[in-house]
Structures are given as C-alpha cells and as structure tokens.
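Reviewer 2 asked us to include a model.

Predict the structure of this chain.
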Amino acid sequence: MTGVQIGLLMGVFMLAMLALRIHVGIAMFLAGAVGYVWISGWDALVATLKHAPYARFSMYDLSVVPLFLLMGQFATYGGLSRALFQAANAFIGHWRGGMAMAGVGACAGFGAICGSSLATAATMTQVVLPELRRHGYSPGLSGGAIAAGGTLGILIPPSVPLIIYAIIAEQNIAKMFMAALVPGVLAAVGYMIVVAVSVRLRADAAGPLVPRYAWSERWRTLLSTWPVIVIFAAVLGGIYSGLFTATEAAALGALATGVVAWKSGGLRDGGLAACIAGTASGTGMIFLILIGADMLSSLLAVSQISNVTAEWVQNLGLGPFGVLVAILVLYILLGCIMDSLSMIVITIPILLPVVLGLDYWGLGPDEKSIWFGVLAMVVMEMGLITPPVGMNVYVINGVARDLPLGTIFRGVVPFLVSDFIRLALLVGFPVLTLALVRWLG
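Predicted model (structure tokens):
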C-alpha cells in the first residue's frame, strides 16, 4: 500500500474509535502511531516518541493554557456573571426584548474572562434564565439567546481554542486575539438584533416592558462590574500594547480573578479545590489531545496526505472561494458531532495547507492563516448550537431540565441566520478580521 492509502485507512480507523467513544486524544495517537510504524517502522516511532512529547510540552506558549483555564474557573466561582447581567439589564432591560439582549451582553462579558463557551452557557443559564422566565419571555427565545450568547466564549479573547489554533498554525497568539475581537463584537451585536426583530415579529416572545432604571442606579450596577472591566482591559491591553506576553497576561488575569473570587466568598467550602481540580482536568485533556495531534501530524507528514490533498483540491476546478465554502460547510457539519478542540487538532494540519496554497484577496501567508483561523472559529461556534448535537443546547438542557431540547433548538434558528450573515461578511471583507492586526500588530 502507498503512504496515502495507509494514511486514509488510519483516518477511517480513527473515526471508528471516535464512534466507539474512545477519547479523541487516544484515538489520534493510536491511529497515528499504527500508521507511522506501518510506513516507517518501529525504530522511527521510538525515535519520534523520544523527542516529540518533550518538544511539545516544553513550549513556553503552552503555559498560557492552564493559566487561562484557571482564570475561567475563578471567574465562574467569583459571581461575576450576575453583576454583568445586572449592569447590562440596568442599561437596556427596559427596551422591547431588552432583558434577553442584556443576557447576550452578559455572555459576551463573561466569555471575555472565562474563555469557555460551555462554561459561559452553563453559568448564564443559572443567572439569566430565571429572570427571563419571571418577566414572561418565551422559552424558545430565552433558551436560544443564552445558547447563542454562550458561543461567544470561543471567539471573544482570551479563548483557549484560539490559543490552540495559534500554536498549531504557528501564529502569534496576540495577533489571533486581535483578529477575533471585531468578529466577536459583531456576533454579540448580531444576536441582539435577532432578539429585537424576534420580539417585534411575535408579540408573545417577550413579556411587558420593565421600568427604566434611574441613571444613578445604572452607574451603581456598572461600577459593580469593575473587576471584569479592569481584568479584560489589563489582559488584552497588556497583550496588544506589547507590555505583557500572553502568558504574563494570563497569569495577571488568573491572579486578579482569584482575588475577586476570594473576596466574594466563592473559594470557600471547597471552591478553591474545585477550581484547581477543574484546571488540572481541563489542562490534562487539552495536552492529551495535543500529543495525539502531534502523532497524527507525524503520520500525515510521512504519508504525504497533506500535499496530495492540496494538489487534489487545486485540481478540482472549484476556485479558491468554492474550496473555502466547502471547507466551512465541512466545519459546520463536524461541529454538530465534535467539540472545537477536536476539530482544530484533527483538521487544521490537513486543511490549512490547502487554504495557504490558494489566493484570497491577495493576502499573504500569515494574514491568510489568521483570517482562516477566525473563520474556522466562527463556524465551530455555529456548531455549538446546530442540531443534532449542539453542545451548548445540551448544557442548557442539563441545567434547566424543564426546558426541552426541541424548544431550544427551534429558538436558536434565528441566531444561526445571524451567524451565516456574519460569516459571509467576514469572508467578503477580510479587513473586518485583519484591521486590528494591521494597526496594532
């Protein structure tokens, strides 16, 4: 068998293991190792295992992962989510549909310090959903707004999936954060517009208008969110200005959110132990996926699958944007059944060379890689709320058992329309993604 045939066979082997619910890191490692031995022999595998894991885990950039995970754990236990929602609600809650918009805004703010879509969805369900129910919002709009708002955790920096993409694609983490900021803000604004349109098309989607807050009350609630504002500004401002490296900014953010969680009492009664255990578990899971991805990448290198795939795609005659649309559709489909980290580590080594080999708007290799990375994050974000396995929807259903899955899935449809419009804008106007990179990078 040729190297390409062996590589394809191992790909089928890996998918079979995933279907059997074997952890994605283990599945990638076993498929990569078996294929590597088949092509290059045991001695080559042993030589690779002697240096590849150390080379990966000794990377300074990887130290940012546990720090941002710890920051997210502290943010979850620190009670910052409720302050964010109360502040957003004080300013726009009196609008038609304003409380659901405030929920989206709170998700964006919490995602900015949490970095996890699933954690954002779970936390905001506990904070926002009871208020929406109390004020007469329909179950579909309530569940859809929270599920869609929760996806912002994957895009608005700091984001662990963005970091992993930057490492695999050999891009600067700070530049990836810059590139994702404007698309993340566009997503939040788009979701708020969806809420505004929904409550005007359906009179029963939202309850009666609530009284307008006095300005003194608005400023008081906004002042209660100062930890989030300061932490977000310090972390991203330090990275963008070059004052901190991404790792130093993550350490500062973790320390600051830890202090806030301690002062709020969130670290009592086992809270600190839970934060540390959650960070350790998440870091171990990510590192296992990375070592599996490295083994799979070694197989892709010796089998020449990446080069053959790039040549095959270029010969299809679809044109650069036809290829890009096919890739994005593939990501949306994969997002229905896989988590974002798994998609990144499995697909980027194969698909990124294809994209880099084509011409898009005259972009250079680095800008093209950054632009494609943000597009990939957007469609992975869409996969979190796309049936049949929209993970955010299942998280919300797990927290609010009396909110049916079907109701939530129907509620997210208008938000998916907003996502498709935003995706088209980002494809057609790369400047939306690259403006900050060019200005600050």
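The mean pLDDT is 84. The two ends are 47 Å apart (CA to CA). We have added this to the supplementary material.
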